[in-house]
RNA sequence: GCGGGCGUGGCGGAAUGGUAGACGCCGGGGACUUAAAAUCCCCUGAGCUUUGCUCGUGCGGGUUCGAGUCCCGCCGCCCGUACCA
């Protein structure tokens, strides 16, 4: 056999063309095979594929190819989340059209993905900026409108002054815009909303059924939805008014010693004619918003000139305007129970308000003093009239029941989740299909007039919404009365685009968003893979959208993604020097640096640079490695192999040159082994047969559990064992097996080897090798011999040897006898096929 | 504060309560070569009085014949999240 090198620069393209021409990965909805839908979160077309994409898509690709070999009809599509701000930024900076810029990026990135050899069904490719796609999205939006799930209202919104658009609550992080980082302002605007809160309970309940989602993501969504149950009730105020408060601890109502209202509460606003009150309100609004600052921020209050009457005791409680009460939650007012709420405790201490005990560890300790902090824990109710002696839970219910029967309050569930504001004052998004008519009000665009397409001739030379200032686009006639009217110029949040794209992949008729029957064949997605950064936004919206469509009878599934996997980031060490004049670090890219095991030097001057922490690849730290350059140098299979090796997929993967070189070496090593394949070899090697079958079973189990790093290790082991084995029929079948095992991970190498050894058709179409259960167990096992749990010797014994035999074998060990040193044996523990432990 | 995760060689990491460190990377030694690359072989947790012994999975306890794994109490790091009443 010739021992030539595997040349990816030839083989990669060759097999990529073969798969494309053969339609190898085109999914057939009408196939009788069981279906498997493998999906990775589709990319935003920024222009370049980065290593994070490569890792994400490689994992999905291994699953897709493996499932195909296991006999599934696999749907593994790819498309583009193509609307969004960066295209408009490019338009503003470079004077290009967002559409043209996006299309060009898509073409580039598609070519990159194809060079990695992903098993994608490109016939289903689309971009969300295709009018066909967003036209159907407009139709779905109108359906939801008819179903009462879309509404419009004037509301205070989060306004990003840099991007000049509205942000959803989910997009405001620490008071700053998630994209621009600018301090978010409050503005009042007429906005479109989706009634996600109608599904709050359902979305929360549904989390329980998502067993194959990471616990972490489910908890994050649970916290985000934020269900709490309590009592809403009103205090009668001394000025004749009422003050509604909400509490999750109505059991502590007898411990209330004050009331506190938010600075923007109507009552506070009503008092703002007093300059002192106005000044205090101002002070509250300037308050810190960062986590660290809030942690230490002092509780401040302003004593309002009114009191609130306690519904049971009749006591007059002072009312404060307080900086720690939020208008957005509950009623914007609370009853202060200092004994059993830490914030109230701090506040009461500062303003010398009574701190009453109404919960104690037992009734005898009803007057025990507090130890410098509130006691929020469980216990028995004390000092509380008719509640005395009850548990916290029972008392909650008793107060709610009493309030409801007496009519001064009622049990209420409060959600942290807000309705989803989807209006964006941007050009590059899906136009919201409505028309504003002075006579008819807000009128939906008739479905036969969809899509409402974006105008091409727009300018980006000034900030704001180009649709709003376009000379003609928004001027249309009212579909109802025919009079002059105006188009809605807001576009939809791009998270709407990604809330149903998986349905369009499954089915894409021209005249409808999707065909429910086709969708039913593929949904739910069997494996959904992407970054943890979408744990709340995208994944919650997609779950909501799917439910909303199910609610309107369009589809049957409630949950779009049966299993979710969040992969780790690709990281790299950083190289930097401190700039002497400015005192800040200057970073260098990996290609500018010579890295040895001792350290790193700059190629330009040969002087050392500091090797920094291994962190997520980012442009600002210059620790980015471009996939294209690596693929050009080492081939697609080496990169794919690297993405799967070493690190468990949910953890970060540190990129290293040594690592990729090792992978490239292994590709060649496998190629040499494959080249040594001899179809005519004879003779049996039972040991190797066992190893082969054990490896096939283990690799399958590892892939199914997404333990790619472990599957990789198994393949290394079998490779080593096969290399060492003498030629035999067993060795030849081991090599054949290795080609199959490698096929999902290193598909180009596998195809090339498969062809060379005369395999039929493409290995991508071949079935996964069958396992002989008889070969999964060894006939000889290694038995550990222990004395008092410490290893003293090992011996080999036939599989299934009796306890007596194993004990005799152990006692015959010279090493064990030396350790025993004549001591009397008290007990012998024998674990069959495992170990013998002598206790003295 | 709350919630979650993690802590094992120089590094990434293996290990149903049963031989800790599989597999890979780095490093060292050797073979082949005029030489280099490639390849192949051997070594590679620490220590010691080295047929073997002792120690060793963040720290301190515990359960067990036996603990990286289970229990209790700490420490550290990472991620998420928050004056949510």
Short overview:
By secondary structure, the protein is an alpha+beta fold. It is built from 26 helices and 35 strands.
Account of the 3D structure:
Helices cover 35% and strands 21% of the residues. The strands form nine sheets. Strands 8, 9, 10, 11, 12, 13 and 16 form a seven-stranded mixed sheet that branches. The chain is built from 26 helices and 35 strands. The chain starts with 7 loop residues before the first helix and ends with a strand. With 840 residues, it is of the alpha+beta class. The structure holds one RNA strand of 85 nucleotides.
Topology:
Layout: H1 8-22, E1 35-40, H2 51-69, E2 73-75, H3 85-94, H4 98-115, H5 131-146, E3 150-160, E4 165-167, E5 172-173, E6 176-177, E7 185-194, H6 200-207, H7 215-225, E8 227-237, E9 242-247, E10 258-261, H8 266-270, H9 275-286, H10 291-296, E11 301-309, E12 316-322, E13 333-336, H11 342-350, E14 359-360, E15 380-381, H12 392-406, E16 409-415, E17 420-421, E18 423-424, E19 434-437, E20 441-444, H13 466-469, E21 475-477, E22 484-487, E23 491-492, H14 494-497, H15 501-506, H16 516-522, E24 527-531, H17 537-551, E25 564-567, E26 570-578, E27 585-588, E28 593-595, E29 600-602, E30 608-616, H18 627-634, H19 636-644, E31 653-654, H20 657-675, H21 686-704, H22 708-724, H23 729-742, H24 747-756, E32 780-787, E33 790-798, H25 803-811, H26 814-820, E34 827-831, E35 835-839
The protein binds one RNA strand of 85 nucleotides through helix 7, strand 9, helix 10, strand 13 and helix 11.
């Amino acid at each position: 056999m010739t021992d030539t090198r595997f040349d990816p620069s030839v083989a990669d393209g060759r097999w990529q063309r073969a798969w494309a021409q053969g339609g190898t990965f085109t999914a057939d909805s009408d196939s009788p095979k069981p279906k498997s839908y493998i999906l990775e979160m589709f990319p935003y077309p920024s222009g370049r594929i980065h290593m994070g994409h490569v890792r994400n898509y490689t994992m999905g690709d291994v699953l897709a190819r493996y499932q195909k070999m296991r006999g599934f009809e696999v749907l593994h599509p790819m498309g583009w989340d193509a609307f969004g701000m960066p295209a408009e930024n490019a338009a503003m900076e470079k004077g290009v059209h967002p559409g043209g810029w996006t299309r060009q990026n898509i073409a580039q990135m598609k070519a990159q993905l194809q060079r990695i050899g992903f098993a994608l069904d490109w016939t289903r490719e689309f971009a969300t900026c295709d009018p066909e796609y967003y036209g159907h999205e407009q139709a779905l939006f109108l359906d939801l409108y008819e179903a009462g799930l879309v509404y419009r209202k004037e509301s205070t919104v989060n306004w990003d002054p840099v991007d000049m658009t509205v942000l959803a609550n989910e997009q405001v992080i620490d008071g700053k815009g998630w994209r621009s980082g600018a301090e978010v302002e409050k503005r009042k605007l007429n906005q479109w909303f989706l009634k996600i809160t109608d599904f709050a309970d359902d979305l929360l309940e549904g989390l329980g059924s998502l067993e194959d989602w990471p616990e972490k993501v489910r908890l994050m969504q649970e916290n985000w939805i934020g269900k709490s149950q309590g009592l809403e009730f009103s205090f009668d105020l001394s000025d004749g008014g009422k003050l509604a408060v909400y509490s999750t601890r109505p059991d502590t109502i007898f411990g209330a010693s004050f009331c506190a209202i938010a600075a923007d509460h109507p009552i506070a606003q009503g008092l703002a004619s007093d300059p002192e009150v106005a000044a205090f309100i101002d002070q509250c609004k300037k308050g810190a918003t960062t986590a660290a600052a809030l942690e230490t921020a002092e509780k401040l209050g302003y004593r309002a000139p009114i009191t609130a009457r306690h519904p049971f005791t009749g006591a007059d409680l002072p009312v404060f305007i307080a900086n720690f009460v939020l208008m957005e939650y509950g009623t914007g007012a609370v009853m202060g129970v200092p004994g059993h709420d830490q914030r109230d405790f701090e506040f009461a201490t500062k303003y010398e308000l009574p701190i009453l005990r109404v919960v104690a560890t037992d009734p005898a300790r009803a007057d025990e003093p507090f130890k410098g902090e509130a006691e929020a824990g469980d216990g028995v109710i004390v000092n509380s009239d008719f509640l005395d002696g009850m548990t916290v839970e029972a008392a909650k219910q008793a107060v709610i029941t009493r309030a409801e029967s007496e009519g001064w309050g009622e049990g209420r569930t409060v959600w942290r989740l807000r309705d989803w504001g989807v209006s964006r004052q941007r050009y590059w998004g899906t136009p919201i299909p409505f028309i504003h008519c002075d006579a008819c009000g807000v009128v939906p665009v008739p479905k036969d007039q969809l899509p409402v397409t974006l105008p091409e001739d727009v300018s980006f030379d000034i900030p704001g919404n180009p649709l709003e200032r376009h000379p003609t686009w928004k001027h249309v006639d009212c579909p109802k009365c025919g009079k002059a009217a105006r188009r809605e110029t807001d576009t939809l949040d791009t998270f709407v685009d990604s809330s149903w794209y998986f349905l369009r992949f499954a089915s894409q008729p021209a005249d409808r968003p999707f065909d429910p029957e086709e969708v039913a064949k593929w949904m739910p997605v069997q494996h959904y893979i992407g970054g943890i950064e979408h744990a709340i936004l995208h994944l919650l919206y997609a779950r909501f959208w799917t439910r909303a469509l199910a609610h309107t009878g369009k589809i049957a599934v409630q949950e779009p993604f049966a299993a979710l996997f969040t992969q780790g980031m690709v990281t790299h060490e950083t190289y930097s020097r401190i700039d002497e004049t400015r005192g800040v670090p200057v970073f260098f890219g990996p290609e500018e640096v010579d890295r040895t095991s001792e350290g790193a030097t700059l190629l330009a001057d040969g002087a050392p640079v500091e090797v920094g922490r291994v962190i997520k690849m980012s442009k600002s730290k210059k620790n980015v490695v471009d996939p294209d350059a690596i693929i050009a140098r080492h081939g697609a299979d080496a990169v794919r192999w690297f993405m799967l090796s070493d690190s468990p997929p949910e953890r970060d993967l540190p990129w290293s040159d040594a690592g990729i070189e090792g992978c490239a070496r292994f590709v060649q090593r496998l190629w040499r082994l494959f080249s040594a394949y001899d179809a005519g070899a004879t003779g049996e090697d039972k040991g190797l047969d066992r190893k082969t079958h054990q490896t096939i079973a283990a690799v399958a189990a590892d892939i199914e559990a997404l333990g790619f790093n472990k599957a990789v290790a198994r393949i290394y082991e079998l490779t080593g064992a096969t290399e060492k084995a003498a030629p035999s029929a067993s060795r030849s079948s081991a090599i054949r097996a290795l080609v199959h095992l490698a096929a999902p991970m290193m598909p180009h190498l596998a195809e090339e080897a498969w062809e060379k050894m005369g395999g039929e058709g493409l290995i991508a179409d071949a079935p996964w090798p069958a396992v002989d259960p008889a070969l999964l167990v060894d006939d000889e096992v290694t038995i550990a011999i222990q004395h008092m749990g410490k290893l003293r010797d090992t011996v080999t014994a036939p599989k299934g040897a009796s306890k007596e035999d194993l004990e005799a074998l152990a006692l015959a060990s010279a090493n064990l006898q030396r350790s025993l040193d004549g001591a009397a044996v008290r007990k012998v523990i024998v674990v069959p096929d495992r170990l013998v432990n002598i206790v003295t």
